[in-house]
Amino acid sequence: MTVETTTRTTCPYCGVGCGVLATRKADGSVSIAGDPDHPANFGKLCSKGLALGETLGTAQRLLFPQVQGARVGWDEATSLVADKFSKAIAEHGPDSVAFYVSGQFLTEDYYVANKLMKGFIGSANIDTNSRLCMASAVAGHKRAFGADIVPCNYSDLEEADLVVLTGSNFAWCHPVLFQRLQTAREKRGTKIVVIDPRRTATAEAADLHLAIKPQSDVALFNGLFKYLYSRGEADCAFVAAHTNGLAETLLASHGWTIEKVANACGLAEQEIEAFYKLFAKTSKAVTAFSMGVNQSASGTDKVNAIINCHLLTGRIGKTGAGPFSITGQPNAMGGREVGGLANMLAAHLEIENADHREAVQEFWKAPRIAGKAGLKAVDLFQAVHDGRIKALWIMATNPAVSMPNSSFIAEALKKCPFVVVSDVTAKTETAQFAHVLLPAQGWGEKDGTVTNSERRISRQRGFLQTAGEGRADWRIMCDVAKAMGFHGFTYTSPAEIFDEHVRLTTVANDGSRKLDLGALLNQDYETLPPQQWGGERPFADGKFQTPNGKACFVPTRHEAVVCDGLTLNTGRIRDQWHTMTRTGLVPKLFGHRAEPHVEISPLDAERLGIAAASLIEVHNDRGKSLARALVSDAVPPGQVFQPMHWSSSFANNSGTNVAMSQQRDPISGQPALKSAQVSLRPFQAAWYGYGISVEAVCSKIDYFATRPLVVGQAFECADLCLPINWLEFVTAQFAGNAIASSVQGSNPAQFRCLGLTDNHLAFAFFASDKPVAVSRDWLQQQLGKTVNPLEILAGRPLAAGEDKGSILCACMNVGRNQISRFIDKNHNASLQAVCEATGAGTGCGSCRIEVQRMIHETQRFTQAAE
Known about the structure:
The chain is of the alpha/beta class.
């Protein structure tokens, strides 16, 4: 009998870098818990992290190498990749090949990829999906500090008296950190300011929400800079001793009066002044920023406008103070440490610096070294499209969905002479363009390190046998490198690679680079505990990595965005991750948001004739997508929000990034993923449908969005044309299963039916001329069970209290109806009482704001009735 074992590892989702305890049970299943000893999360996990054990099956896995769709051995696949890359280099030069890698990589994978491309192939054409995430933060750090160094750590959020969250839906995207902040707030009365065009769950928890116009952040912080200086809030001693460039930055901010800022940001002057006064009087202030700042055509200037305010007031390098970039992916930081971006060398050495290039080349004993920056993500795929890139290797990412103007990316991949994809699954939009597919290890199998947003290195440890013939990404690349005739890739373990990476950080480093991991050389890799490089606050000594050791103020410029239509903002939702190749396997993670949707203001919905829950078409000259209308005053008129997760694996015609332009920040190269100009129009569906089925369902209709269930799948659908015969249509959709009972309404669009197998529910289908109104969560639980056909056709339970409603708390599987029933019986119940009674909010806590909203709405209704 297998002995139960527990492994300390790290979550593969966001940049918080939570510690995980993965316990392999005797029956082979895996239970997941937060690691109480890990300093990032102290035992807490979000809904996604808690569900990691449910993502470990092999049903969706790529299990063996394939060439043109046919199974081959590793030797054949490796030789083919090596041969194609070698021939392209020989005929067209090193810059004719490229790697596109991922923040899902472990640091050891990133290191080998960077070494192979820059030091042996001799090109810097290696970029990463972290370019879409953190490149503007990197560029801003380097302009201000001389190096890409985050100056804060997580405890600063707990020690601050003011936390400004800008461009971040912290409660949903980094929920464990948000709960740490909320706990500290209860203890010390921390004030929270949220700067975001949308009224997100985070904004609802704020003391002050500044719903600025999209892309007006620079104006807001330039105005703050001027306000602080003009009112004597500058730390003159710090500025004189530790900074350069104040005069030029003051000149750039000169005209930003409160009135001008209010006009630029679309806010009342009183709101601006309230924020400025609060920041001015609160010395312990942290400004945490994320994608809403970075994913912009002016992202680098936004970052520097924030940093300028902290430098001016000396609020950096101190407890509870500083500008804090919160990374989006689990190892975006580790990738930056080893030079994973096209404009970097490893170990924070500069690719444009001849001495640095020589030092790295000598350390690697490399035959050549890239002499200039390579192509950044958008430019890289442009080069693929126009034929300059002859061979492309994509690893652990899905650019056919995640890159802007995704239709263009698909065209580029289709035109590329040779495409290699390494991944855990072949069921991605990118994989369909691969000439060669290589099976990589997944989370739970991989072994290596990651670095989180506070510069903390943690081990990701394998605890599962590798599925099929999968291999570690570093090993796949090493085998190809050796087949290309390169030395220096004979590693036998990730520990050897990590040791080399650590030693490289000490090369040509006399203390001028704070990224120095030399202290880790004598530590055992297998038992390595979480380690933070650079100390808790790297700039506590006032020394920066510029040539004179002083930080740089950077003048920044606000450019007003002209919008002729609606501005499309994109981002994550609470329980899903990226293009759902992992979270899409977990039924309960669809309970909160089940299908593609667009948040639109009531005014815009009325103006455009869009009804709540109807389908709408989002379109511009780059493409179009279909999504459900979520009419909400969380978005102001003139703006819409569409999550970026849905791909063709889960919905047809619903990709968000098809509408995004390739506009990007001129300094960082990061795409502007928050400000596409779009139009909306109602999708004139002849009928709407909802169904559940034990077996797979045909999806050849205009709109089809599916989600997994514990048994089978559920789906929403709609079409422009009515079927000629509903019985024939449904029989075809459900793969020939017989209809046991059906009801045809007087309206030709109204139809309901179900099918049974051995008296157990095999499928049910509901159609209407309007969005179907049935109890979805209850119905989904009936699949595979003995049922009352009349109850199924009614679409709801006949017995009161059986329907828990849509899932609000994914961690504890608590539905809205359960919460509502308790609140209805206990009108004056506190948030804590509701959570304790129902279980909602007792996991990661990211749903507590929505529970509080339900309490407030019930209390307002009760008071109005009285």
